[in-house]
Amino acid sequence: MTDANAVSNSGGRVRWKYVVAAVMINLCLGAVYAFSILVPPLEAEFHWTRIETSLASTIALLTFALSMMPAGRLQDKKGPRTAVTIGGVLIGLGMMLSSYTNSLIWLYLSYGVLLGLGVGFAYGAPIATCNKWFPDKKGLATGLVVFGFGGGSILFAPLWNFIIQNYSWRTNFLVSGLLFMVLTIAAAQILKNPPKDYKPAGWNPADKSKKAGIEFEPTAMIKTLPFVLLWVSYWFGTNAGLMTISQAKQISKEIAGMSDLEATFAVSILGGFNAVGRILWGIIGDSVGKEKALSMGFLLCAVALFILSSVSQPTIFLMGICLVGLCFGGFLALYPALTSDYYGSKNLGVNYGIVFTAYGAGSILGPMMASYFRTFQGTYLPAFYISIILAISGMMIVIFLRKKTAK
User: Fold this and answer.
1) Cα–Cα distance for residue pair 321/148, rounded to 1 Å
2) Are 239 and 367 in contact (CB under 8 A)?
3) How many domains does the chain have?
4) Residues near 105 by beta carbon (within 8 Å), at least 6 away in sequence
5) For 80-101, b where at least 16 C-beta lie within 10 A, e where not — what string?
6) Does residue 3 sit within a domain?
7) How far apart are CA 40 and CA 308, in angstroms?
8) pLDDT tens readout for residues 313-358
9) How many CB atoms are closer than 10 A to CB 44?
């Protein structure tokens, strides 16, 4: 009996431990979505503008997205442990060095570049690994893995707020950096790819995948129309989520008039729905089709952004925050699964790394657009209006993609 058959015949129980390890890793990485908790103390101490402070988060998210490509190549060649271990070291160093911040350039290099590199190296490998272990349940598997990333801010937003209020933001960077390094490196040692010929018991690829058996090299993938459509729509979708996430605390206080504690809760609940959305939309995608699920997500996202742009009543505003998080989580679950569907799992690490550069584009457009309008016009509203148009455009692109690939 081959290793692949032995694993398959075990009932697939062994593969769930990789999901658990992946979720632990992503919980640590997802703390990057709690950056808005750090904005007030940094601005209070250094008197930076909103654009200057927010740029640290933008650099981190952009570096995260761009480093996914070399990290994906590393994980495809050397396996997930190496990539995630490197990521864990970089994350820890980035956070701990950020505690010594006394200038913008230091924060940009430590938090923006080092932390961003660490997240990029550690993020893609667990997704690719679990996609390979769950070819029969790609939407669910990806949703569960990235659930941790979305859930990171649920856990760390209140924890960071507590540490900052009772100690300092510098202490928060030190403690978090050490914790993230230890947990990420430990969980990385559990991860490994399945045997080459692994297939879950009772699974027939022909029944589940319209492109079963087709494996694309990155150079071939980028020449296809579906890649272009996936990339552009992903950019439009992540723009809305990253804009809201990066400014969540400030938006909640300024538009809905929330207190500091209430705004911190809004950041946490945004993270909660972000996390839930990754599982929920993964399940929906496996059930009705990933493209159809995506188009639904874009429509709901446009509605959520309209609520945020037109309502100041705290409870209804919070509903809009929740819906943005729910939809954004869905995008992060469905796009890697779709990349695997269209282009195979063999080169998923680097292929999704290329698709994920759209996230990097969203990390520039969304947060900086919001910061620009807030700084120079005193309002976030134009950024919301633009994002509504982009969300509707994303929906139309996905509908076109579904029609083209159905032929």
Assistant:
1) 19
2) no
3) 1
4) none
5) bbbbbbbbbbbbbbbbbbbbeb
6) no
7) 21
8) 999 999 999 999 999 999 998 998 899 889 988 888 889 989 999 9
9) 10
| Reported pTM | 0.78
Q: How many CA atoms lie within 13 A of 157 on its CB side?
A: 29
pLDDT digits (tens, 9 = 90+) for 262-317: 988 888 888 889 888 988 998 899 889 999 999 999 999 999 999 999 988 999 99
Q: Is residue 34 in some structural domain?
A: yes
**Which residue in the block uniquely carries the two structure tokens 């089709």?**
289
**133-136-141-143 Cα dihedral, nearest 10 degrees:** 150
> Between vectors from CA 139 to CA 118 and to CA 25, what angle results, nearest 5°?
25
How many Cα atoms sit within 13 Å of 281 on the Cβ side?
36
| In a domain? residue 1 | no
The CATH number that applies at residue 273 is: 1.20.1250.20
